[in-house]
Amino acid sequence: MLDPQQEIDHIAEFADSSVRTLHRQGSLVGVPGSYGLKRLLQSRYGNRGNAVYTFTGSLIAMALSGVAAWGFDEPLLFPSLGATAFLFFETPMAEVASPRNAIVGHAVAVAAAMLALAAFGLIDAPSAYDVGVVPERIGAVALAVALTGGVLRLLRAAHPPAGATTIIVSTGLLDRPEQLVAVATGVAILTVAGVALNRALGVPAPLWSPRG
């Protein structure tokens, strides 16, 4: 059984970091210190207003990422960014949705995937989407996901979408150096957009970590 402080830490990591002070501030449902559109939507429409907030933030952030991908003609959009965007605008004050966890999470995911590819001799190999799944690819994907989860646990930087990023890289969908740069750039663009939009729309989201 967890002691009270451990329970607080667990809730803070996955739901609302502010429960560390025993004063709930962070879920989208009720954010003390909210202002602007967020406060208006919550006060007038309750959960329906929260749905509009999540919709609006996600729409704008993903559209900005898409425009950047189109303008630079690079794969700055990839599936796991959708999950990151959802966290940014559904639980913006949770540790899993903080800029720190997003940046560290995806970075660890990419590094773990490349290490796994190297371990199984798959650097520069055709992707699983071109030649199918082979035993070496299965091992690489499994190792990549395991490394990502283990390292992020050690770093206390949980970010579930990173599990998708490490599969994207370890299956060979995006594993060339220039593609990895695009992945990092895509994460950075979305993270900056998420922080900026939350603050512009009325949620005092952390600039880096809720603890700092």
Number of strands: 0
Number of separate structural domains: 1
Count of DSSP-assigned helices: 9
Beta-strand fraction estimate: under 5%
Q: Residue share in helices? A: 55-70%
What's the overall average pLDDT, rounded? 90
Q: What gyration radius follows from the Cα positions, in whole Å?
A: 18 Å
The shape is elongated
Q: What is the element string, with H for helices and E for strands?
A: HHHHHHHHH
Cα distance spanning the termini: 29 Å
Low-confidence segments: 16-27
Q: What structural class is derived from the secondary structure elements?
A: mainly alpha
| Biggest pleated-sheet summary | none
Question: What is this entry, summarized?
Answer:
With 212 residues, this protein is mainly alpha-helical.
